[in-house]
Amino acid sequence: MIRIAAKRLHEGVPDWSAVEEAVRDFEAGAGRLARLARYYEGKHDILSRTRLTGLPNSRICHAYPRYIAQVSASYLLGEPVQVDGPEPGASALRALLQRASADSVDVELALYQAIYGRAVSLCYEDHQARPYVCSLSPRNAFVVYDDTVAADPLFGVYVRESREGKTFTVYTDRFVVTYDRNRRAQARPHPFLALPMVEYINGADAHGDFEDVMALIDAYNLLQADRMNDRQQFSDALLVLTGVMGIGSDDTGSAMERLRQEKTLALPDSDAKAEWLVKTPQEMDVDILRKALAQDIHKFSLTPDFSDERFAGNASGIAIKYKLFNFDNRIKLKERYFVTGLRERARALCGWLYTRQRVVLNADELRFKLSRRLPVNELERAATINHLRDILPRDTLAFNSPLQVDPSRHRKTSY
């Protein structure tokens, strides 16, 4: 989190020295963000590994970072975010979010949050004064907070690369500020009445979901690469001749050539012998180590291995929930920070609704619901409903049934 003193803003606009200091702090962590992006894209450190000339050099990358980030993001947003609140303002906000394709933007934000430890969204108006929402790469955008215990957001910065160099656009709660070549600020007001750039933090430490297991992933890559190297070297075994002074040539050609072609070798006496010198592979030990590394990657990233036999199709619903207990707790923690970001984004959109349409809606009165998608044991669910048929009303049982109810034939019945 980048923090500066709030007094460095003059009439709501930061001076260039404050922006420059914030950008300098942000670029100090650019190497970390680049490495996280590289690992997610499958470009791991083992690709730069070198060995002596003539030795096999397998460089194998395993897509654990992509797996961990995508499983986490898809579980967090298994269904689109539902927003409820006082009417008619909530309906106007839902219509605005639907028109702005906020559902797809939320998926990008959840994935960025899982990869980089934070995500950034921006609310903006097009040339026809229509509001939109987009996600910005955390490698190019960030939010600056004040240095108090409240850590209130002060302004957001979007850095763009161009042929002329880097350009900076600063967003405050009232203005969009650009800086000319002389670093003089040019501010124009925006209609959101709140900071339109919002960060979605992935926990208090803002770590990526796979960031803490990258060393284990490197070890797994190295183990599998060396396993392939050993296999290749096994085919390049040496022929050891004992009791043979050397192999010369005669009128029929080279003895070594005959050995390659005829696959036969004549030894001078019974004490001489020939044998292959190979490296004895310890496949069982290597496989035990491989499984231990894989288990540690899943364990310390709190990401379940869905290929594990413990997730068999005949497992009960409660058994699956126990296996997902730690993973589900981590997602709930992510959800709290994600909902905080959604509320701040809604605050900006509520400002737009008031400015452009005179619709009054308080973002603090909104309720956000993020639903999960878990496999359901329908047989177990149906048995539970059957046991409760004499206790609960029929409409409650029908609502919780795994079968779809025909609304034209369904009648409410209570007991």
Give your account of this protein's structure:
It is a single chain. This protein has 415 residues and is of the alpha+beta class. It is built from twelve helices and 17 strands. The strands form six sheets. Strands 1-7-8-9-10-11 form a six-stranded mixed sheet, covered by helices on one side. Strands 6-5-12 form a three-stranded antiparallel sheet. Strand 7 (141-146) and strand 8 (153-162) form a beta hairpin. It is flat. The two termini are 57 Å apart. Mean pLDDT is 84; it is low at 410-415.
Comma- or semicolon-separated keywords:
alpha+beta; six-stranded mixed beta sheet; single chain; 415 residues; disordered C terminus; three-stranded antiparallel beta sheet
Q: Can you tell me the overall shape?
A: flat
Structural class: alpha+beta
Number of strands: 17
Question: What is the tally of helical segments?
Answer: 12
How does the major sheet shape up? 6 strands, mixed
Mean pLDDT: 84
Give the helix level as a range of percent. Answer: 40-55%
Element pattern in H and E:
EEEHHHEHHEEEEEEEEHEEEHEHHHEHH
Using only CA atoms, what is the Rg?
31 Å
Percentage of residues in DSSP E strands = 15-25%
Strand arrangement in the largest pleated sheet: 1-7-8-9-10-11
**Span of the ends, CA to CA:** 57 Å
Question: Low-confidence parts, pLDDT < 50 over ≥5 residues?
Answer: 410-415
